[in-house]
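Section 5.1 Outputs to date
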Amino acid sequence: SQRQPISITVSSTHRSVNGNHADLTFTCPDGYTNTFTVSKSAVVPIRHGVFSNTRQGTSKLGAPYTVKIAGRFASQKRASGTIRLTITYSDHGACSSGVVSWSARHR
């Protein structure tokens, strides 16, 4: 964990994750470090209590990125999983958050 908050939005039927939001700190090969906000609104099916999704995009600065999130619901009120960001800057190279563990509870 990077000790940053993460939010997961679940549908009222508990059959899909409808969004997630997290701030991930990444490090580049040259030592450059920064934080990237991952915010996604998309329907990701939950099957047998498990979900996963990979999203690719381009940052506001034109850097291509990939976010992979996976999770498992231990109950209707608790979930845990991993999230990983990779982002490539022309002047810093391929940067990564590494695999970040997360846990969430209903509020």
